[in-house]
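Feature request disguised as a bug report, sorry. It would help if multi-protein outputs had a clear separator. Right now it looks like this:
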Amino acid sequence: MQTTRVDRSSGQETTLDGPRLQALPTSEDRQETPADPLTTIWGEEPAQAVAIALEDDNFCVRDAAVEALGKLGGDEAVYALAPALKDEVSWIRWEAVKALGEVGEESAVRLLEQALADEDESVRGTAAELLAQSGTQTR
């Protein structure tokens, strides 16, 4: 049995044969906390790790990053979503507004208020709906 492993940072390939492959830790060997698997994958700041994808040239990658940040929640996700409100693609801005509503943090209100001035009607409308649902007065 043999497999090849690629180190993402260096790009170096390592071939693992039977005995070396069997020596790798399995999921039973690791003591992971099931409450926060993202911390295990991305470290202590998963929102920052996902936010890097917001700079990708591919629209679909940015869209997936916005959705993931909405699911992550918290102030870090709100901070990471702010640049998506300036994306050149209105769909991404609309998804960012939806994600801010999903996050549900008070810190998202300021960004939702900014989205009321977006050039796209669907972005403005969704921001207004979310602010109304939260009971926030729009200016």
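(second protein starts here, but nothing in the output says so)
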Amino acid sequence: MVTRHAPLADAAMEIKLNATLGHLWFEEIVSGDRHEDIEELWSYLNQADWYTRVMLIGGKNEEGNFYSLTDEHMRSTIESVRVALSSASTLEMAVETLHEQSALIMIQATKDELNGCQRDS
């Protein structure tokens, strides 16, 4: 019993940890902290998703073997977590695009301002 359930408890903890860390990185990036790397955010979300998948289909890593959940209620809960992680990824991609576009707008505005100063001279 321990062999089967302990890895699932570990997977649930890893999902919570990685989703929380991903959320914290997302908040830092959205608030404008340019020192945070978006790849770190994706890493946390991908890790959380990996653990949801092994809870649904089974798998293994260096920590051990993960047996798939058999309880339908638990499977439904984990499937909902996967949907939430997917939604978070979509939102974060949109924010990443917005940051890139705003940077381009700022560059263009600076160029326009410099060109205006050169014409005024």
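Even a blank line would do. Unrelated, but nice: The longest strand covers residues 59-61.
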